[in-house]
User: Which sequence fits this backbone?
C-alpha cells in the first residue's frame, strides 16, 4: 500500500491543525505541534495522528464541514486505503519510520463540526477492532515514531511491514 503526504498539520493546541510544508519529526511527534490536553493526547505511542484525505472527502459528502487538518491529524494522507490500515503496520514517509499503535477514539472537542460527527467517524464495531465497519479508519490512527527525520508535503508514504 503506497500513497503520499497530502498535508502536514500542527497547532499550538487544539483543532484545527494548520498546514506546514515540511516538518522535523521526533519520537515525541512533530516539532512545534502541541495538544490542548497533553494528559490525553501525545506521548511516544500517540506521537502522530494520521487520517486519509479520502476519508475526509467521505465525511464532507455527508455534509460535515471538514478540511485537511480539521480533525486534528498531523498527517493527511492521499492514496492509502483506510480500510486496510491496521495496528502494528509500519510505514515509511520521507525519512521517517513509524508504526500504527491505536485507533483514535473521538472526543467532544470534535463537536464543533456538528453533534453527529462522533457517530459518523466511530462506532461500536470500530471500538471493538472490527475492520469491517464502514467507519473503520475515519477517526484516524495514532502512531509511534520508530525513526525520526524530515518529512515534506508530497513525500511518498508506504507500508513497509506488518507487525502483529
Assistant:
Amino acid at each position: 500500500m503506497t500513497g503520499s503526504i497530502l498535508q502536514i498539520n500542527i497547532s499550538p493546541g487544539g483543532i484545527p491543525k494548520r498546514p506546514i510544508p515540511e516538518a522535523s519529526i521526533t519520537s515525541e511527534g512533530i516539532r512545534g505541534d502541541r495538544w490542548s490536553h497533553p494528559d490525553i493526547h501525545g506521548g511516544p505511542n500517540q506521537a502522530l495522528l494520521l487520517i486519509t484525505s479520502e476519508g475526509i472527502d467521505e465525511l464532507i459528502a455527508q455534509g460535515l464541514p471538514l478540511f485537511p487538518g480539521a480533525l486534528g491529524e498531523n498527517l493527511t494522507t492521499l492514496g492509502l486505503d483506510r480500510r486496510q490500515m491496521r495496528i502494528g503496520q509500519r510505514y515509511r514517509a520521507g525519512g521517517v519510520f513509524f508504526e500504527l499503535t491505536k485507533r483514535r477514539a473521538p472526543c467532544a472537542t470534535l463537536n464543533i463540526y456538528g453533534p453527529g460527527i462522533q457517530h459518523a467517524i466511530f462506532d461500536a464495531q470500530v471500538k471493538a477492532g472490527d475492520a469491517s465497519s464502514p467507519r473503520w479508519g475515519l477517526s484516524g490512527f495514532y502512531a509511534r515514531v520508530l525513526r525520526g527525520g524530515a518529512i515534506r508535503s508530497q513525500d511518498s508514504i508506504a507500508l513497509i511491514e506488518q507487525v502483529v
The mean pLDDT is 93. Helices lie at 53-61, 117-121, 124-127. The chain has one domain: 2-162.
